[in-house]
Amino acid sequence: MESEFDDAILAGMSDDEIAGLLEAAPKKAKRALVKKAKTNATRQNLMASSTPANSRGELTRRFNFLPKNIQDGLTRRTLQASDGVLYAIKSVAGAKSVKMFRDDDNKVTGLCNISSGKLEKGNFFLMNEIILLSGVATNDQAAGTTSTFHVIDSAIRNGELELRVNGASVISALSTEVFNTTGNRSGHTGLYKLDNPKLINEQQAIEVNLEWANPAPARMWVKVLLKGTIIMKN
Residue 234 and residue 222: Cα distance in Å, rounded? Predict the structure, then answer.
């Protein structure tokens, strides 16, 4: 009986036929239909406020691949999804490597918006874009500020990026040249879109590590932004 509640079959039945099928169905099958209807409603709500190109569209397409506890939370509306960006800014003056998120980080407006390189408890993050930028501060500017962040400097461009989550390498030896969007008018400066979005669970350590061949120029700062969908308690 449960197989009769498949979407393709239901779509071809009249309202009266569905009502009759539901009335004759055992409790287990009725529960299956209610669960399917709630899940579909959740997916439609997500789709209604997003397009396939944005982060919530990515979430919608991958709904069935999310852990069951997250699916259930979104279905029951104990969890909500919204566009989100994690960012950090670090000095790289004279350096040849940098850890953009560290366990001694604190939230400081304009410098970093997560503490200890981890999501807050109860939050999940589906990341689908990375933006990498650099800028040079003038002598009279406060630490961590630059007038403008641009396409990454040529020195940093000759390097690699690694993304680690909870100690495991998720992206390894990604050439930083992919963030060189010079002449590309179709997207955001310094943006690299992931073919396979990455799900980061609550309290998992996030690391974005950069390494390049030659020392970076004086007073140079690097900014990284991880863009996607944050799933949090409602």
Answer: 34
Low-confidence residues of the chain: pLDDT under 70 = 1-13, 37-58, 140-147, 186
pTM strictly above 0.85: no
Within the chain, where are the H helices? 7-11, 15-24, 27-48, 55-61, 68-76, 154-157
Determine contact, residues 58/128, Cβ cutoff 8 Å.
yes
Tokens, residue 23: 């009335």
Number of Cβ atoms within 10 Å of the Cβ of 88: 23
Q: Of the candidates 84, 181, 175, which has an alpha carbon nearest to the alpha carbon of residue 123?
A: 84
Q: CA-to-CA distance for 48 and 38, rounded, in angstroms?
A: 15
What lies within 8 Å, CB to CB, of 125 at 6+ separation is 84, 86, 119, 199, 200, 226, 228, 229, 230, 231
User: What's the CATH fold of domain 80-233?
Assistant: Jelly Rolls (2.60.120)
155-197 confidence digits (pLDDT tens): 999 999 999 999 999 999 999 999 999 987 767 899 999 988 8
Q: Which of 30, 40, 29 is nearest to 71 (CA)?
A: 40
Hey, is 70 helix, strand or coil? Answer: helix
User: What residue ranges of the chain are covered by domains with CATH 2.60.120?
Assistant: 80-233
CA distance 67 to 73: 10
Residues 218 and 78 sit within 8 Å (Cβ to Cβ): no
